[in-house]
Amino acid sequence: MKVYLRNGDQLVLDGGAKCSDAAAAISEGLARSAVAAKVNGVLCDLSHKLAEGDKVEIVTLKDKEGLEVYRHTCAHVLAQAVKTIFPTCKLAIGPVIENGFYYDFDFNTPITQEDFEKIEAEMQKIIKANTPIERFELPRKEAVELMSKFKEKYKVELINDLPEDAVISFYKQGSFTDLCRGPHLPSTGKIKAFKLTSIAGAYWRGNEKNKMLTRIYGVAFAKKDEMQAYFDMLEEAKKRDHIKLGKELKLFALLNEGKGFPFFLPNGMVLKNILTQYWRDLHRKEGYVEIQTPIILTRSLWETSGHWDHYKENMYTTKIDGEDCAIKPMN
Ligand SMILES: [Zn+2]
User: Fold this and answer.
1) pLDDT in tens, 294-317
2) Cα of 104 to ligand 1 centre, how many Å?
3) pTM greater than 0.70
4) Neighbours of ion ligand 1 (CB under 5 A)
5) What are the E-state strand segments in 49-161?
């Protein structure tokens, strides 16, 4: 059968070939670095079966989507590790976030960051075992039965809320199965660098009327040195924290009399004036002229601008000579 690559090239494959076969047919290196594929624009597993005429793109960790698949797989490894150590805990959701992932759990007995070492060690075991990650689909009734059997009440709720025509898919790695849309890495061994970073409370479905769950955050990177660079960057950012620098360089003071409002000190004013001069020079060079408008203006102006109808609750209002006025919301 014939499939097409992003550049329009044709690739001839055996009938029933998978995305991984397409990667291997392109190059050995690509087969090694492939983590997922895009078929006709839809992100899917490398095990996805191709059809005649499909448009295929191989996704690696150099792609943003590839890293997301990688990080989300880390969330599944975290869930498996936590379930192994705390078999009575219930699973909620585990999405990807910037630089990493999180997973929400419902623990019988609360855990703390002290438990991270144990959980990370279990995750390393799962990664070392290099277990294949397999996708399967179930009809709604059987999907609910499976999750009920595992006593995963949050998953049952998620399945029940899926639209009528939704494809209900699961991902299985060894003895662990999770309800998931996917895609995922082909096996757990592809994960090279991760670290659990923090723990927080989070309401089920973000609703304060629901139960408070435990959210475990982690980061994951394609390589160990990339993860180290990330932690180094965080350390450097801490050194440059504006509150710390403002104090050390005597730029501004934060006082109880104006919470969140800086009181500029002489050094701060020198810096502020230099920056303002630079800003002014740039504008003048580009042909702009300056004006200045009042800080407090009447209600009719804010009605014209739309602020009054849309943002009134976030504006500071006052009455001047009996007339409604408001402080400029952005200056
Ligand atoms: Zn998943």
Assistant:
1) 999 999 999 999 999 998 888 999
2) 13
3) yes
4) 180
5) 55-60, 90-91, 96-97, 100-106, 133-137
